[in-house]
Amino acid sequence: MDVNFNGTTAEMLKIISDYDEVTGFNGAYNIREDSKCAGRRSSENITIESKEDKPGINIRVKPFTVGETVFIPACVTHSDVDDLVYNDFYIGEGADVVVVAGCGVHNDGEEQARHNGIHRFFLEKGARVLYKEKHIGTGKGTGLRKIDPVTDCVLDEDSYLEMDTIQLRGVDRTTRSTSAVLGKGAKIVVRERIMTDGDEEAVTKFHVELNGEDSGADLVSRSVARGNSHQAFYSVVEGNNRCTGHSACDAILADNGKVDAQPALNAANVDAALIHEAAIGKIAGEQILKLCSLGLTREEAEEKIIEGFLK
Prior knowledge:
This protein has one domain (7-285). 10% of the residues lie in helices and 56% in strands. It contains three helices and 22 strands. The protein has helices at 7-17, 285-292, 298-309; strands at 28-33, 36-41, 46-50, 56-61, 66-71, 74-76, 81-91, 96-100, 103-106, 113-123, 128-138, 145-147, 150-155, 160-169, 173-182, 187-196, 201-210, 215-225, 230-239, 243-253, 258-267, 272-281. Strands 3, 4, 7, 10, 12, 13, 15, 17, 19 and 21 form a ten-stranded mixed beta sheet that branches. Strands 1-5-8-11-9-6 form a six-stranded parallel barrel. Helix 2 (285-292) crosses helix 3 (298-309). Residues 91-309 form the SUF system FeS cluster assembly SufBD core domain. Belongs to the iron-sulfur cluster assembly SufBD family. It comes from [Eubacterium] siraeum DSM 15702. It holds the Pfam family SUFBD_core.
């Protein structure tokens, strides 16, 4: 299928998925625009097919596929769109792939524009996935820009899932829900970075069940709340076997920003080793003074510190 999308989508694709207008995507892809497919290509080892019972796609990666990338960006380009999609990933035994699943919402009108992507991952024995997800909101309309991703994961024996998620501007409302059930020796690593401003609101929810022996989870959220924005972080890690679990929320407050952090640990096995951390505060004054002594203004110093914090 040839790609067929508008200019707004093209601009957002460059940001959320590093799309190149000349070379396109280097790998299998499915581009979603305003609830419709705007382009699709499978590869020899990665097959993308439409669901028959609901909006969305099935992505199947053959066993022992290594070094390939599949792109599934989704864009909403105007107001009065409520996009709901169900995408299921079936990752074969021993595969090692990258999934790029960014989302952009553009709103120049008065009605709400929303994308709700429900992604399910099924990793077979020894499979490895790097899942990259970048969210942005654009446009000058008064209608809300909303992105509500849901990610549910089932990790088989010795499989590994790493999630790298970023939301740094323009999304008025978001609830980000991630759940995972881990088998023997399976690992999940999450690195979340969020910045809110104005009256934006962001909610993060993690729920991980460490059911398999020697399974592990490392969940880290870094965030900056500026303006009058509000963020909430909820994390539950359940240790039901010999396992290791770590959950952390590290947040910077600026202006009148607010952050709530509620990490929770539930241990049901004597050999479950679980840790949680939460740190919320403003930028340290000595950091700003040090950068100002090098010639930066206070505003420039704060931007440099935040930039480094969210890397």
